[in-house]
Amino acid sequence: MKxxxxxxxxxxxxxLYAPVVSAQNGAVIVRGETLxxxxxxxxxxxxxxxxxxxxxxxxxxxxxxxxxxxxxxPDGTVKLHENGHFFxxxxxxxxxxxxxxxxxxxxxxxxxxxxxxxxxxxxNDNDAFGEHPNRRYSWGWSASGTLYDYAGFxxxxxxxxxxxxxxxxxxxxxxxxxxxxxxxxxxxxPD
Length: 191
Prior knowledge:
By secondary structure, this protein is mainly beta. The protein has one domain (29-188). The protein has three helices and ten strands; from the N terminus they run αββββββααββββ. Strands 1, 2, 3, 4, 5, 6, 7, 8, 9 and 10 form a ten-stranded antiparallel β-sheet that branches. It is globular, with a radius of gyration of 21 Å.
């Protein structure tokens, strides 16, 4: 009976502290869930809006939680990883100023919306809360998925969305230190 009680107590402690785990190298791993939204622009006329709430947090829609994980390393750096699915709408022709003026009205503007659906977007940051002197600081995300094509871009009624954003700071740099890869948001027909 004592073994049963000790096992039950151990199980309860494990359930309460499941989000925080220590790795063998001394790192501490913390996990959780969050909700958020963001917009992106291709620099010309396509604006994408991604939200973990189906109504962009305007009218209380359906929510998809984004999983996140922080790895607190012994050297003081914190690695951040997020991964989630997002309700996504693609607007054309549009600019970030159109979205910034009234995000809720923009989200519901059917006359500018050319595609919508759900995409996947992972985000990685190798030093989320600072810059370690012995490591190149890099971060970025991608957003991709197949969406319903409302504008007739593709014959099958679906369109692929792909966005890549990668950034890195040069090590021991005085000026012009940011190296970036910026692709999309780009629409293409599925194969």
